[in-house]
Structures are given as C-alpha cells and as structure tokens.
C-alpha cells in the first residue's frame, strides 16, 4: 500500500465506518481477515504476482471512511558500533490506530568503504537509500500488475546515483552533499506489451512513497536529548 498501490477499483464494496464495531481496530481485523481468507481476483488464466489486491483495495476503502487509521509512523533505531560503522534495527511501527510489530526484527549494517579509510562492514547509507527506492518501485510494479491482471515473469532494477564527494568532505561549499541525480533502469518480462509494462512502471512511480521522499522536500528535525 505504501509503494505503487493499485489505481483501478475492483468490485470491493465500501462499507461505512459505523458498520465496523470497534472503529479502527475492527478495520484492522477486517484487513487481516481479507488477507488471510479471500482469494485474489481470478481470470480465465489466473494471475499470481503474490499481491492480494483485494485486501489492499479493501483497506483503502475502509480507511477513506476512517482516515485517522491511515496515519502511520515508521521507526528505526540506530547504534554506533565503531568508526563509521553503525547498526540499525526495525521492529515496530504505529498504524491503524495502534502499535504494530513486524513478524521479525530486521537489522541493517551501514559503513563506508575502504577507499574512505573505513572498514566496509556494510553498505553506505546512500546505497541504502538506493535500495529503498528500488524496493519501493518494484513492490508497486507487482501490485499494479496484479490489479491490471498482468502476469510478471521477471523484474530486475538497476539503480545508480551520481555524487561529487567534495560536498560531504567539505572541499567545495558550492557542491551539494547529496546525489546529483538518480537513474533507475528496469528489465521486465511480462505477459503484456511494452506500452502496458511502461504504464505499470509509471503508475508505480506515481504512488511510490520513497520516490516522493527523494524528489520532494521533507521536513526533517534532528534533536539531541
């Protein structure tokens, strides 16, 4: 739902909030039940990209009637290890009116490469940004393709970001710290025309949370306790 969700409605009836006793928590249960118990949209040739669009569209319809449940807060904790090496952990988040937890705890190592006189214990933070963008767009491609009843056979993204490191090194005050530009190239095999595939990618880009984060200003505050 965060990255490139479906754009065309399926035959999912929108139910008013008052029909869901317990408000947002009832909606959360409805979504979970939909995911676990309903079949995906079927055609003469079943399409299975692994995305339950009925659940996603059911969630969208329910949250339109209870917009407070659509307010999410994503979290991560980060601890310094040594040098430029740090470890980040993702466990839970807030959404649907309450605290939620992932099925597993996810950990991420970040560091700088040896050419930066570091120990290269993990991907650089800017590489993790690229990973986030590619992952978000690819998730959206799978969702949109499922909703448009197009079978994907393979999807591969190659992403690169160009950067002048004189910015982060303080060597030139006119050089920005971040990327000069990012390029994403997709190789997609699907039971669809080239035009249909390009339309799927375009819709994913349109609904991608990470694409929005990177291409639009975001308020960021840094505090020290």
Structure overview:
Helix 1 packs antiparallel against helix 2, helix 3 (125-147) packs across helix 4 and helix 3 (125-147) crosses helix 5 (209-215). The protein has a domain at 71-215: K homology (KH) domain (GMP Synthetase, Chain A, domain 3, 2-Layer Sandwich), CATH 3.30.300.20. The protein is an alpha+beta fold and 225 residues long. The protein has five helices and six strands; from the N terminus they run H-H-E-E-E-E-H-E-E-H-H. A hairpin with a 2-residue loop joins strand 3 and strand 4. The strands form two sheets. Strands 1, 2, 3 and 4 form a four-stranded antiparallel β-sheet that branches. Strands 5-6 form a two-stranded antiparallel sheet. Residues 8-21 and 35-43 have low confidence and may be disordered.
In short:
It contains 5 helices and 6 strands. The protein has 225 residues and is an alpha+beta fold.
SSE arrangement:
Blueprint: H1 23-37, H2 53-65, E1 73-74, E2 77-82, E3 85-95, E4 98-110, H3 125-147, E5 152-162, E6 181-190, H4 194-207, H5 209-215
So, the CATH homologous superfamily of one domain? K homology (KH) domain
Low-confidence parts lasting 5 or more residues at pLDDT below 50? 8-21, 35-43
Structural class: alpha+beta
What is the mean predicted local confidence, pLDDT? 87
* Largest sheet composition: 4 strands, antiparallel
The whole-angstrom Rg is 20 Å
Helical coverage, percent range: 25-40%
Shape descriptor reads: globular
Number of helices: 5
Task: Quote the CATH topology of one domain.
Answer: GMP Synthetase, Chain A, domain 3
CATH architecture of one domain: 2-Layer Sandwich
Oligomer state equals single chain
Beta-strand residue percentage: 15-25%
Terminal residue distance: 34 Å
- Helix-strand sequence: HHEEEEHEEHH
CATH class of one domain: Alpha Beta
What's the count of strands?
A: 6
């Amino acid at each position: 739902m965060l990255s490139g969700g479906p754009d065309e409605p399926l035959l999912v009836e929108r139910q008013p909030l008052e029909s869901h006793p317990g408000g947002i928590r009832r909606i959360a249960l409805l979504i979970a039940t939909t995911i676990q118990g309903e079949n995906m949209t079927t055609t003469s040739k079943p399409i299975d990209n692994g995305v339950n669009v009925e659940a996603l569209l059911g969630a969208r319809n329910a949250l339109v009637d209870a917009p407070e449940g659509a307010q999410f807060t994503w979290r991560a904790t980060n601890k310094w290890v040594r040098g430029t090496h740090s470890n980040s952990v993702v466990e839970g988040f807030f959404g649907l009116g309450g605290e939620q937890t992932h099925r597993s705890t996810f950990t991420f190592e970040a560091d700088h490469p040896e050419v930066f006189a570091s120990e290269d214990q993990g991907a650089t933070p800017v590489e993790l940004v690229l990973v986030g963008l590619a992952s978000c767009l690819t998730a959206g491609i799978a969702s949109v393709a499922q909703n448009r009843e197009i079978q994907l056979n393979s999807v591969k993204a190659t992403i690169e970001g160009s950067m002048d490191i004189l910015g982060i090194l303080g060597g030139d005050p006119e050089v920005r710290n971040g990327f000069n530009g990012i390029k994403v190239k997709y190789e997609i095999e699907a039971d669809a025309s080239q035009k249909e595939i390009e339309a799927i990618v375009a819709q994913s880009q349109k609904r991608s949370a990470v694409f929005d984060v990177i291409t639009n200003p975001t308020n960021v505050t840094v505090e020290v306790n």
